[in-house]
Amino acid sequence: MHVHLICVGRRMPTWVEAGYQEYAKRLPPECTLQLIEVEPMRRGKTGNRPGEAELAREDEAQRILKAIPKGAGVVALDGRGEGWTTPDLAGQLKDWLRGGRDQALLVGGPDGLAPSCLARADRCWSLSRLTFPHPLVRVILAEQVYRAWTLLNGHPYHRG
Questions:
Q1: Considering the entire predicted model, what is its pTM?
Q2: Which of 66, 114, 125, 138 is the most exposed place for a label (fewest CB within 10 A)?
Q3: 50 pLDDT higher than 80
Q4: Host H or E run for residue 19
Q5: Is residue 14 part of a domain?
Q6: Is residue 49 part of a domain?
Q7: Residue 157 lies inside a defined structural domain of this protein
Q8: What is the CATH classification number for the domain harbouring 138?
């Protein structure tokens, strides 16, 4: 089973790539984490013009939706989604592994996900009631998927 992390944005800072890779490489072949980067829409340098955020979300949504692997389950990361604890995520991961169906985690850009991405999702998950910069979300997700896997497998990494 593969977890496909579909994120808006390219050319991340070195610390983001290093943090993501650190956790992704720890996962076993039966539960891999694969990053799919989607090109963001170019935005104006002076801030959002009226309607630009909606246009950006829809533009990025087209690429996000095309990047979802055929047959994969879809979880959209959205601040209005369900709040999962680490044991909740471990339960989700257990179900995903048992089902053998790849999963796609959708992470929007600075303006979030378009309604079409939220509609396509089987579930919506909120990492926190806090707002995180979208590059940091990659690292958090990689670490949390690894932590959930360790919890399922009785490894000492997770001390709940």
A1: 0.91
A2: 66
A3: no
A4: helix 14-24
A5: yes
A6: no
A7: no
A8: 3.40.1280.10
